[in-house]
Amino acid sequence: MKPFTYHAPRSVEEALSLLEQHQASCAVVAGGTDVVIELNEGVKRPEHVIDISKISELRYVKEEDGLVKLGALDTFTSLERHPYVQEHLPALYETVIHVGSPQIRNLGTIGGNVVNASVAGDSPTVFLTYGAEVVLKSTRGERIMTIEEFNQGPGNCQIRPDELLTEVRFPAPGKDEAVGYFKIGKRKSLAIVVLAVSVYIKRTADNRVEDARVILGAVSKHPMRVPALEEALKGLPLTKEALEGTLPLFTDAVQAAIANRPSVVYKREGVRGAARRCFDQILTQFGLM
């Protein structure tokens, strides 16, 4: 590991000042579950390391002005234990309880997970389904962009060297909106995502699909929306039989995304089961199952 100067700011303002000064050669550490490994292995060789883990103002879960706002330093464990997440955001809860080991959930932060922009990242898929945005701050001001704009592929998020991701936010789901999430991993514990499916449905008064978002994770360089599936879902009655009638389209989407790669066989079959679990979650949230 190359020697570096260590900084531990206690406020966002102090962190942004350090980023402005040292942006040419610095690394930001939150939980450290990814960056510390990269430092140890020499993948990153910064002259300055800015540890933001002590910035308490970036730890919060709140609903405000019709938006759910999550502080970038919320850990997966803190989200798992938060009553609002448990009661109102079942898909996010389903996501965070299946991230890595207890040690990783205790340390890993949602901001770090989003910025890492891994193909196998847990939170970006479900955040995209919720229609989330990220808030980026620097001494020059604030930028807001959608997760879809922000995540451009493995390790390629649209954050500038002097910026800090401070918040993930999305519209608070109403009673006629539901999100389902299910991931497939190679093992029951410490599972890296090999396939994730997340589905958002807004219903009409007579229990039909008014609007839909379908996201597939770990089949492309970033979480991928599937417009053809979204259109196929619109107008369908909210019944198990009707929703599962679209399952062959999930297989088609996976086949088109990963072509002839070796993983295509189990992913194109596994996606049906994952989508079925999403539909079951959604119907349960609507009280229709």
TrEMBL record:
<dbReference type="InterPro" id="IPR002346">
    <property type="entry name" value="Mopterin_DH_FAD-bd"/>
</dbReference>
<protein>
    <submittedName>
        <fullName>Xanthine dehydrogenase family protein subunit M</fullName>
    </submittedName>
</protein>
<keyword id="KW-0285">Flavoprotein</keyword>
<dbReference type="InterPro" id="IPR016166">
    <property type="entry name" value="FAD-bd_PCMH"/>
</dbReference>
<dbReference type="InterPro" id="IPR005107">
    <property type="entry name" value="CO_DH_flav_C"/>
</dbReference>
<dbReference type="InterPro" id="IPR051312">
    <property type="entry name" value="Diverse_Substr_Oxidored"/>
</dbReference>
<dbReference type="InterPro" id="IPR016167">
    <property type="entry name" value="FAD-bd_PCMH_sub1"/>
</dbReference>
<keyword id="KW-0560">Oxidoreductase</keyword>
<dbReference type="InterPro" id="IPR036318">
    <property type="entry name" value="FAD-bd_PCMH-like_sf"/>
</dbReference>
<dbReference type="Pfam" id="PF03450">
    <property type="entry name" value="CO_deh_flav_C"/>
</dbReference>
<dbReference type="Pfam" id="PF00941">
    <property type="entry name" value="FAD_binding_5"/>
</dbReference>
<dbReference type="InterPro" id="IPR036683">
    <property type="entry name" value="CO_DH_flav_C_dom_sf"/>
</dbReference>
<dbReference type="InterPro" id="IPR016169">
    <property type="entry name" value="FAD-bd_PCMH_sub2"/>
</dbReference>
<feature type="domain" description="FAD-binding PCMH-type">
    <location>
        <begin position="1"/>
        <end position="175"/>
    </location>
</feature>
